[in-house]
Design brief:
By secondary structure, this protein is of the alpha+beta class. Helix content is about 25%, strand content about 35%.
Length: about 450
């Protein structure tokens, strides 16, 4: 019985001509439905109103220098279960595969395959009607020589230009993270998104190392921008501290991030430096609830979870009875809370000052949505540019300096007796402030790294 199907082994070489990838070794796996391609720095964007993504492919195994920059229209997102059994949402693109002088369209999902043995997996959906697999064979269609691969990819080896900056965070699609990557690339730097969960540490007095998914050693970064989500504070700060031990510049230090995330400790540091805050109480025993409420001027009052952040774990108790019930409920759960004076005259408004290297770059007034008491644009609030007073500017700069943060979002409210400091955020979001400002805040963050490293270099 004759067949026109291509007979392949369990591993082969193919090309993806539309992506400018002339040769890539693939694992042929008829047990997998979906094909997958190794891709990093995956970033969505719009082209003529349609969803596209840009991404980088390292087509050669254990070689991160050979880089192909690709752009493709998005045809969908798909949840795929990896070999480890974990589900992952992936972008899906359509491209042409070239193998044994034949070409056809296939769908490929994009994911980081650094920990896998092959940069690409060819699933049965892409093979259907075109190929037969001989699982005992390998490279039935031949292999390219090292000289040929060098000829193919010589021009694709990344040349060092500018700085190499890593963005240490959890979500590459977050507006702030995308903007920082874009701003760095626009200034000629090599930017890489480093997912916190994919980093791990080698503790060694003589040769400390940071490893990344698949065993890659991260030893060539000039700077790291840590943007650590609250749930990852402990691990993210451990990674940041390790980069510091390796001599890598970090825009905010691990110690400054850690203390900014500790609500009680940060307030103690701030008031010890003479900064005004709303009257705040902290107690362990439910027996002291009545005095705790009196201490902050009675109801209405604010109850804050010490572990909460970005508006989460913050509740308004409008009556004394509600305050007692809320405080005692938290105490029964052994949750650490702060009880804070409610500044009624703030009328659901606060000021976010964006501070970079000791200067207030921009300030916005945030107004809470109807029925809310917190000024949070992610909960329907609004934002507008505002000119702050000299007193407010002084508070913002001193607050960032007290917390030792080079980049900080300082939140201030206006009380009847003047400005009061609410919180200092070590990973301030860019979406709200860039949305109403003409300033390139992400670009100013990158420029501050350039200046700091230039100073560091001139001193050494």
């Amino acid at each position: 019985m004759s067949t026109n199907k291509i007979v392949v082994g369990s591993e082969e070489w193919c090309g993806l001509p539309e992506l400018n990838i002339p040769a890539i070794k693939v694992r042929v796996d008829s047990g997998a439905k979906t094909s997958a391609l190794h891709a990093v720095n995956i970033r969505p964007f719009k082209k003529e109103g349609n969803p596209w993504i840009s991404y980088e492919v390292h087509p050669l195994q254990k070689n991160a220098k050979t880089t192909i920059h690709c752009e493709s229209p998005v045809i969908g997102k798909r949840k795929v279960k990896s070999s480890s059994g974990l589900g992952e949402m992936r972008y899906v693109v359509r491209t042409v595969i070239a193998i044994a002088d034949s070409t056809w369209d296939i769908e490929i999902t994009l994911t980081n395959r650094d920990s896998m043995g092959y940069r690409m997996l060819l699933g049965r959906q892409a093979m259907s009607g075109k190929m037969l697999v001989d699982p005992e064979a390998s490279f039935k269609l031949g292999e390219p020589t090292d000289d040929l691969l060098e000829q193919y990819y010589n021009i694709s080896i990344k040349k060092a230009s500018g700085l190499k900056i890593g963005l240490l965070a959890s979500n590459p699609n977050l507006y702030s993270n995308r903007r920082i990557i874009e701003a760095g690339e626009e200034r000629g730097h090599e930017m890489e998104f480093l997912n916190i969960k994919d980093c791990y540490i080698k503790l060694d007095g003589k040769n400390p190392e940071m490893h990344y998914r698949g065993g890659r050693i991260l030893n060539d970064f000039d700077a790291i921008i840590p943007r650590i989500r609250p749930s990852m504070t402990f691990y993210g700060c451990a990674l940041t501290r390790h980069f510091e031990a390796m001599g890598v510049y970090t825009q905010n230090s691990a110690s400054s991030i850690t203390q900014s995330r500790d609500k009680l400790y940060s307030l103690q540091l701030l008031i010890n430096n003479g900064l005004p805050i709303p009257t705040t109480g902290f107690a362990n025993s439910p027996l002291d609830t009545d005095d705790l409420i009196k201490m902050v001027g009675g109801a209405p009052l604010i109850v804050k979870l010490l572990e909460g952040t970005q508006g989460k774990g913050v509740v308004l108790a409008e009556t004394k009875k509600a305050a007692e019930s809320l405080i005692n409920a938290f105490k029964s759960l052994r949750a650490n809370i702060l009880v804070q004076e409610f500044i009624k005259e703030a009328s659901g408004k606060d000021i976010r000052c964006f501070v970079i290297n000791g200067k207030v770059i921009e300030s916005i007034m945030r107004t809470a949505a109807p029925g809310e008491f917190r000024a949070n644009i992610h909960m329907g609030g609004t934002a507008q540019l505002i000119k702050i007073t000299p007193e407010e500017r002084k508070i913002a700069i001193l607050a960032a300096k007290t917390m030792n943060l080079k980049v900080a979002g300082v939140d201030i409210i206006r009380g009847r007796n003047g400005a009061l400091l609410l919180e200092v955020n070590s990973s301030p979001g860019l979406e709200g402030i860039e949305g109403v400002s003409s300033k390139d805040i992400a670009g100013i963050m990158i420029e501050s790294i350039e200046r700091d490293l230039k100073k560091k270099k001139s001193k050494s």
